[in-house]
Amino acid sequence: MSIDRAELAKALAEATGWSVTADPRRFTFVNDDPPQVVIWTVTDAEISEIHYSQNVRAKGFGGSQTNDPAIVGVPLDEALGPFELFGGSRGYMDGTDLTIRE
Length: 102
Description:
With 102 residues, the protein is α+β, with helices and mostly antiparallel strands. It is built from three helices and five strands; from the N terminus they run H-E-E-E-H-H-E-E.
């Protein structure tokens, strides 16, 4: 699966409510209020793995599979929510492990 990181960054921004930028190795999530930054270092293969897992999960709940890149935003939004709520300022995630570490 070919990953258009610019398109995925837009989809992730819409899904999470954070500003998102992308480069070939990482996505950077920025929240302005309060000021927070989370860097997610991830390969295209790992993004594809998360996408596949979300499709399997959706199918298990009676949904259908999708090629929409925004489906990757669901677990990212779940990871960013507690970080935003409890006031971390800087954090990082690595690959398919969407646990934010400070």
